[in-house]
Structure formats: structure tokens, C-alpha cells
């Protein structure tokens, strides 16, 4: 069943066209220079198909909460998920939403020179200027009151969010939002989950950030729990209207 994602109404870029494409559990909200719904649908089916085929061959891949070891050659999206899980210390499926967003987004760049792909709070983007990303943190008073202003420059960037209080994704923590900035969307997704797992009280925010900043490839972290916030990395924080 589709769960309304009202926070998507706050995502906009004046020169880009916005559209939604959903296939099974994958629900993408995309900004591009022109409508690319059919191409996006084909790309979702392509990359989902690869992951689904691998799971059919290795059913335990989908349930393990520990880093996965690849035996023999594997598709690139699987290798990205496995590498992200290994670096973050979690199972590979912790990176699946980010991996789909990243691989679809990279392929869309053959049809548009700017793209923003959001998949359940995990965002892959390549734009020709800075982007402000609002942080949805459930019932926290900080939710959607602040945003991260980031400029991808020459290479795509990603911001992924994990929550122990919002959504259906598995988390062992209680943070309202853990956002991770990285050039790898797969890694940002897995790292956000791993960092979020460390936080069961506000007292854990600092130690969780210390843990996260040692994950190779993580460039920035924001943790929100109730009225408390912790940050690390070179990010510009802006107040949202």
C-alpha cells in the first residue's frame, strides 16, 4: 500500500520537472530537465531485476544483518551494496534503497544533465548549482525546520536518512533522523542505518557521530533526536521557512 509522503511537496527546483515512478516497493520521486517517466520505469525494472535475481540465487542475502561475503563474480549493484554494508558493519540490504537511487540516477544522467532521485528519504543528485535538502525528523520540533545546503560540483552527491521513529525500515535505534552525506548513495544509506543503530538515547549522539565519521567515504553526519541535534562534516546548515 502506498504511504503518502507529504515531505515530497517541499522538494522543488525551479528549472527541473518533477515526477513519481513506483514499481513494487521502489517508489522514486525524480527531478530532471524533462519528463522521463518511461525511461525511469525501465531503469527501475532493470536494477531491481538484478537484485531480485541475486536474492533468488542467495535467499539469505535479503535477511542477513551482517556484512555479506561475495563468492565469485557479482553484478556491480550487488558489489556496491556489499561494499557499503562491509564498511558500515551492516547487512547489504541496508544499502538497497540508496543503491537503486544511485544506479537509476547515474543512468538518467545519459538523458538529463541534472537529476535528483529520492527513494524513501535517500537522495542521489547531480545539479549545476547548490541544493537545499530539508530534514524530516518525525515529531521532533527540529523536523523540517533546518536543511543542508550542498553543492555536488563535478560529481554526484548523496544524502541518505535513517530513522528509528519514522517509516518502515529496520532500525535498532531511536533517533528521529540520521542523515549521512557521501559521494556513494549505497554507502550513505548503509552508514545512516549503522549510525542510527547506535542511538537509543540523546546521550549516545556524540559517540554515534564519532563512530560514523570513521566509516571511510562518509563526508558529513546530522543526528536529530527530540530537541537535540549533533553534526559533523563540512556542511552548510540553513533555516527553512
Structure, briefly:
With 241 residues, the chain is of the alpha+beta class. The chain contains 5 helices and 11 strands, in the order E-E-H-H-H-E-E-E-E-E-E-H-H-E-E-E.
Strand percentage lies at 25-35%
Q: Output the strand order for the largest sheet.
A: 1-2-3-4-7-8-9-10
Can you say what the CATH homologous superfamily is? ApbE-like domains
From the helix content, strand content and strand pairing, which structural class follows? alpha+beta
As a whole number of angstroms, the C-alpha radius of gyration is: 17 Å
Number of helices: 5
| Mean pLDDT over the full residue set | 90
CATH fold title = T-fold
What does it look like?
The structure is a single chain. The protein is an alpha+beta fold and 241 residues long. It has a single domain, classed as T-fold. It is built from 5 helices and 11 strands. It has helices at 37-57, 76-88, 96-108, 185-197, 205-212; strands at residues 17-23, 26-32, 115-119, 122-126, 131-134, 146-150, 157-162, 177-182, 218-225, 228-233, 236-239. It has an 8-stranded antiparallel beta sheet, covered by helices on one side. It has a 3-stranded antiparallel beta sheet with strand order 5-6-11, with no helix packed on it. Helix 1 packs across helix 3, helix 2 runs parallel beside helix 4 and helix 3 (96-108) packs antiparallel against helix 4 (185-197). The two termini are 31 Å apart. Residues 1-11 have low confidence and may be disordered.
